[in-house]
Amino acid sequence: MRIEPRGTLWASRLLGLSLLAAGPAHAAELPAIPGVQDGGFAIQSTGTYLAFVGLGLGSAALDRWRSPNDTLHLAQVQTGFFGLEDGGMIMLNAGLEKRMAPWFGHAIELNTQQWWQGEHASTGGGLMTYGRWLVPLRGPVRPMIEGGAGIFFSVEPFPVDGTHFTFNLSMRLGTELELSEDYRLRVLYGHVHHSNNGIVMPNPGMEAHGLTVALARRL
Fold first, then answer.
1. Distances (CA, A) of 104 to 48, 82, 88, 121, 218
2. What integer pLDDT is reported at residue 215 of this predicted model?
C-alpha cells in the first residue's frame, strides 16, 4: 500500500490551516521577500492556502513517476538570524527528514531560539514540523520552498509584551546544493511568526525576516 500521496496532501492542508492562524505582528527590521506584503510569506488568504494545497495535489500527481529508490532519510541541523524591531533572534534546529520523492519531504525538528529586544533578552525551545518542496532538476542545485508550523515556549514572555507560549510559523524560499551523495547544503530567506492566536491575552504577535543555513546528511 502506497501512502506517500496521502501524506503529501495531509502536510499541505495542515500547513495551510496552521499558517492561517497568523495574527497581528510587529514590523521586522530586515526586508520581506520582494513582491510579498510586509507580513512575510505567510498564508493569509484563501487563495494562497489553495495554492499550497495545489502543491500537495501536484506532488500526488507526480507520484506515478516516483521510484522506490527516491525515498531518502536525512538528518539536518540549521541555524539562522532574524531581525526584530530593536533586536534580533538566533535560531538553531536539529531534526530528521523523510524525502518521499525528489520534489517533496516531511521533517520534524527540535527548535531553539535566543532573542533580544531592547533591554530584554531570553531563550526558548519548541518543536517544528516542515514541508519542503523542491524543483527536481538534474543538476546539483535545486530551488526550494519550505513551510513550517510548531509550538514554542520562551523563558520570558516573547515578544516582551506577549506570553510564554506561542505558535511558531515560518515560510522560506531558497536553494539546495547537493555537495555529494550524502550531504546537502541549504540556504533560505524568509519569515518567522510568533502568536498565541488569541488563546490568552495579550497577543501582540511578532514577525521577523532572516536568513538560514542548513546542512543535511543522508542516513
1. 19, 26, 31, 37, 15
2. 97
Q: Are 166 and 194 in contact (CB under 8 A)?
A: yes
178 backbone φψ class: left, alpha, beta (φ>0; ψ -120 to 50): beta
List the one residue out of 173, 177, 179 whose CA is nearest residue 132: 173
Q: Find all residues with CB under 8 Å of 47, minimum gap 6, and list them.
A: none
Chain mean pLDDT for the chain: 78
The CA-atom distances, in angstroms, between 18 and each of 66, 114, 204 are 28, 23, 18
In angstroms, the Cα distances linking 170 to 15, 84, 129, 181, 201 are 10, 15, 10, 28, 22
Give tens-digit pLDDT for 103-147.
Answer: 888 899 999 999 998 888 999 999 999 989 898 888 899 999 998
CB 219: neighbour CB atoms within 10 A?
A: 11
On whether the CB atoms of residues 57 and 79 are closer than 8 A, the answer is no
> Domain coordinates of the chain in residue numbers?
4-218
Q: How far apart are CA 67 and CA 63, in angstroms?
A: 9
Name the CATH topology of 4-218. Porin (2.40.160)
* Residue 101 clears pLDDT 90, i.e. is over it: no
H or E stretch covering 62: helix 46-62
Residue 21's contacts (CB-CB under 8 Å, 6 or more residues apart) are 167, 169, 195, 197
Q: What is the DSSP letter of 46?
A: H
- Cell numbers for 132, please give them: 519542503
Which range (6-20, 32-46, 59-73, 94-108) has the least confidence? Answer: 6-20
